[in-house]
Amino acid sequence: MTNFWVLDYGFTKVSNLVRRLFVWVFIIHHSSFIIVGCTNDSDEAAQFFLKGNLQLQKREYKEAIRYYSEAIAKKPDFADAYNNRGLAKFRNDDREGALADYNRALDADRDFGTAYFNRAEVKLEMGDAAGSLSDLERIEKQYQDSTFYQTRLGDTYVRLNKVAQAQTAYDLALQLKPNNVEALTNRGALYYSQKDYKTAEADIRQALKLNPNQDAALNNQSLLLAHAGNYAEALTYVERALARQPRQPYYLNNKAYLLIRLNRPAEALPLVEESLQRDNQNAWAHYTLGLYWLGQRQAAKALDEFRTAEKLDASVDALYYSIGTAEFALGNKAKACEAWQRGESINDEQARRERASRCR
């Protein structure tokens, strides 16, 4: 299989991941200061801030950033403006800029819970799951009864490979709000990673019932179908996900994977290449490219990609079966048998069959 996408994190994710939209964007934790008893500069800063919020709602991120910057110029310690400018930068694919602004917001107000939440988000996107957890733990008492907080906590525990804690957080998120589509999508992804496909499907189907256009859930449904061998139907779901997020690297890769399974490799190649251009640390995309080269009878190139995938994430489905296949094609029987044995040890049925038939 290939990437099963946690919303905007990319289990993908949600994760490029797609951007998780912070629902508390427009909370102004210093609103009384902004509106009552303002100096001229503070009043102008407030006006620019509100204009920035309007542009953020309209998804005009560059304009929002411009207005927030004007607000900050008028009031350099304006924590809310730094926070919301950080969010606008995050949605505009500037993670480093977002992180810098969240840091500035917290320099201005060390108790700004919203900024800790947002900084946890961008840290998770940048691969700092431990840092994300630290920020979330800091605001636990304040937000522990929030379904959105528990969802993000679950995502962070997934990245830290703390499955039990992730499960608990997602369960609590859904107790707090049973129609939390993101929590359903991400819990479904967690079930999928544990090979509990029936339960995963129940969560994903419920997510799509609540929101038929949820791109992460559409993508995940495509992978559930692919796992069952229904590649043609799976393709329709990932294409619907791509219609909403055309350049999302995991979705591009997943479509490429399905096209390879449908014997359409020429269409798959540009998609997986674009996916890797956008995220070259994605083990699943390297695996898909390896499958492409294997199908083209270029086993050496395939093996290079499989080995890269192994370094990035050795849990990729059927990876050791594929490594063994490439090694065997290159005449390296001993290495092939070693790879298949490793696959068998992690319950890869294909690897077990190959080892049984070829390694006597």
UniProtKB/TrEMBL annotation:
Q: Which InterPro entries match?
A: TPR-like_helical_dom_sf (IPR011990), TPR_rpt (IPR019734), Ycf3 (IPR050498)
User: Pfam families, per this entry?
Assistant: TPR_1, TPR_11, TPR_16, TPR_8
Please provide the record's keywords in A-Z order: Repeat, TPR repeat
Looking up Gene3D superfamilies in the UniProt record yields: Tetratricopeptide repeat domain
Q: Where are the TPR repeats?
A: 45-78, 79-112, 147-180, 181-214
Entry protein name: Tetratricopeptide repeat protein
